[in-house]
Give the backbone structure.
Amino acid sequence: HVQLVESGGGSVQAGDTLRLSCAASGLTSRTHCMAWFRQSPGKEREGVAIIDSNGHTNYTDSVKGRFTISRDNDKNAVYLQMNNLESEDTALYYCTVSTLMTYWGQGTQVTVS
């Protein structure tokens, strides 16, 4: 049974920093891509950042230069360092881990005021 647990969300002020963590358990296959998505009320879910098994990363334009995705393969964990947060970053953030399937976490709320 694969389980992803996100943590690190919270309510902060604009300009503050948060670090999201996502720990995966129960994986039995090699992990390929790990990513963060987010969804705000009334908006479609969007991809925020992705990192492949070689450490190559990609970001949506609105977070480039502010967010950094990283991973720890030994721990099956993925992180999202979020600096200089803006009110537009307010959303429910989900992590995903892709092996032969893609697994989703339950989400962690980030609120920026």
Notes: The first strand starts at residue 3 and ends at 7.
